């Protein structure tokens, strides 16, 4: 498995997003000449991306992400900004497009939808044996993705206001016409046809802009799951990765065993996504087992039970401990709101998140 994290660049003095990515990337490259892309550009200049090395060891993933965050934060500090793992900015922003021809074309084609985007996610890659196996996973994974969205929810604020959602990023990113839940491909050829058809409509400029909640990677033999908000606490990032790896492994085994694909109603998948984005883990979620609405903790427990056979003992213990901590302490969105209630300051929310990003 491998993890990519999109991170905000925020001014050190007032916590507002700063268009500092080009300078941060330049500093990071000069500090690590042997690393091709220690920090990468993203859609807006107020954000940057880091990516872990592939690994099957959760402890190694934790150390790698922590180290990469630290090095990227040092490059950010050298340019006068802070690197913060928040999925949206609590403070107001007018996002600045990255100087890239593809990104400029996206702004021309999609107008205000593109101009207002500044959202940071965690993308998890899990290796599969073949593209057909990957599609077998994609056709089965959609009902469980809202649970991952709920536990990673870390974007309650946008433009200085509480949005009423635990994951406002879900709504913002979901406004792309190529984004959201997708299923029913059947095999790799069916998946390729669906991607080609979407590009042909103009809803995506190319296959890289096909923003399905889960998709086949263009670069690796992996399934890429894209639903999670970036997590402030790196341990939560690892929890998300472990659950996704377990889910991919279990569903790949179902595909190999010929387990039928469940009947998935698109309107219910959209409703489940909305519910997870609004409430996080504080309310009820649509139960993927078909039991209607259930307390979020019960649905999360069902996900853990499903993936546990694919986890080793150490990983299972890590998942159980992390889930119990999340249910006790709350999500990233809960933490942000708690800091605001205590201090009355969105700058304090940023300061708290900046410290926890590197903890």
Folded structure, characterized:
By secondary structure, the chain is an alpha+beta fold. It has one domain: Creatine Kinase, Chain A, domain 2. 49% of the residues lie in helices and 14% in strands. It has 14 helices and eleven strands. Strands 1, 2, 3, 4, 5, 8 and 9 form a seven-stranded antiparallel beta sheet that branches. It has a two-stranded antiparallel sheet with strand order 6-7. A hairpin with a 6-residue loop joins strand 10 (284-286) and strand 11. Helix 6 crosses helix 11 (296-307), helix 7 (168-174) packs antiparallel against helix 10 and helix 9 crosses helix 12 (313-329). The longest helix is centred in the last third of the chain and has 23 residues, at 234-256. The chain is globular and about 55 Å long. The model has no long low-confidence stretch (mean pLDDT 97). Its EC number is 6.3.2.2. Belongs to the glutamate--cysteine ligase type 2 family. YbdK subfamily. It comes from Nakamurella endophytica. One of its GO terms (molecular function) is ATP binding. One of its GO terms (biological process) is modified amino acid biosynthetic process.
